[in-house]
Amino acid sequence: MVQPPADLEDTADVVVVGGGSCGSVLAGRLSENPDRSVMLVESGPGHRIPAEFPPELADAGILPVGPGSGWIWPYPVELTVGRAGWIARGRVLGGSGAVNGGYFVRAGVGDFDHWPASWSYENVLPYFRAIETDADFAGPWHGDAGPIPVRREPAERWHPVSAAFAEAARDAGHHDDPDKNAPGSHGIGPVPLNIRDGVRVGPASAYLLPHLDRPNLAVRPDSTVTRVLFSEGSVTGVEVATGDTVRMIRAGAVILTAGAIATPHLLMLSGIGDAEHLTGLGIAVVADLPAVGSDFSDHPEVVLPYRYRRPVARTTRTPALQVTLNTDEIEMRPYTASFGDLIPGSGIGKPCLGVVLMKPRSRGEIRLASADPRDAPRVSYRYLESVEDRKALSSAVGHAAELMHAGPMSRLLDPEPVELSGEWLADRLGTSLHLSGSCRMGTDDRTSVVDDRCRVHGVDGLFVADTSILPAVPSRGPHATAVMVAERASTFL
Ligand SMILES: Cc1cc2nc3c(=O)[nH]c(=O)nc-3n(C[C@H](O)[C@H](O)[C@H](O)COP(=O)(O)OP(=O)(O)OC[C@H]3O[C@@H](n4cnc5c(N)ncnc54)[C@H](O)[C@@H]3O)c2cc1C
Hints:
Helix content: 10-25%
CATH superfamily: FAD/NAD(P)-binding domain
Number of helices: 12
CATH topology: FAD/NAD(P)-binding domain
Bound molecules: flavin-adenine dinucleotide
């Protein structure tokens, strides 16, 4: 590889790669120390103040991730054998957290049984509290001084489908669940949201933009890291492409927060991954870590469409989701609008109820398609490969159909018929876009990529601190857990 000339070199103490949910937290927190220079490199465009955000990034009632969106990385994927599709991840300062549904709920207590011991629920609770200011609940589980505002929609503001679904769930014997961020939460209740006055307040707005005037913090938008650079097993910096210009940033520490697809992609391009896979593509191996890109997990989702029996209005800035029903391994989501309205350009017209497997056993894989950084990696979800997953999802769809035919729902809407066969499920299969665990945290360098302090095994100065290091996808949406991980990781440097 041709090295850039010296006048195209920058230096920083720490380079953070990817200004998404986790990268925004890390750059914000690490630059609190005025003696440390921090450079954040983001592939997508940057905005300096929330007021500069275009309306579709601000409005929490819209997810600007449809075809043609200027704020995403589109990745071709295979969801299950023979069923190809594509998924979106955020590509803008704020990352996926700047385009997501605004549902900000913690992982369950039991999820941490599968994390390294130093990440027990007891140990992470102070960080969950530190990231938020909860407007509805106080006490030992909640924060009152953190950057992310958390609130729930009061019942009087619920959309008719939220109210009808909650009533049907209660009639069917499900418990009220007023606080989904309290230990032991299950049942029907309002979702915690990081939305204020209809506007998403993601990690970029909360942790980063207020501090852009710090002299020790530099942000490089529209710049894509193409390789991490090493010398004798230690990090020396990164190679960055901005348009046609290639630049090197020298740094003593590099933190990868490029997200659960781009982080393993970048590691493999840089020589860290399964040695056989890398040498097959002519990439020199820096560290043989077969868990890079292996055994990731995500929430498979089947949507059950319906039509309203009477016109139902949605006010602007209504969140996509106001209530959910959670059992041990299932989440049901009565979306407040059709995906066509939520995701402009997606072409999916009908309103629907989402039925989601929250503790999937099937595991997916990310592998390089080539050694060229411009080529997207291959992402194989392998959804529903596990018989237990197929059974659990099929049984959940059956229960969801019962709820949709129960009085409160059936007075409002007319559901399409469902079938419970594997083929029917596979035809309607989607993903919640919660991909996690593609560079898992753990002790063993055969089955994990980073240790419990987010250090890449066997490489000095290289850290990963995004959703790729979660040992598995949490049994709730991952966003709050991702922010907690980044908040805690910022204390490790
Ligand atoms: C459409 C959508 C809706 C979602 N809704 C919810 C929800 O409501 N609730 C919930 O809990 N979770 C939700 N999620 C998931 C959640 O938002 C993500 O899990 C979380 O934001 C991921 O954080 P991250 O920091 O790991 O990655 P990201 O936030 O994706 O950040 C990665 C950043 O790195 C940048 N990047 C990538 N490669 C490079 C490179 N080579 N060089 C420089 N920069 C690079 C990207 O442009 C991006 O900005 C949703 C996700 C999506 C996509």
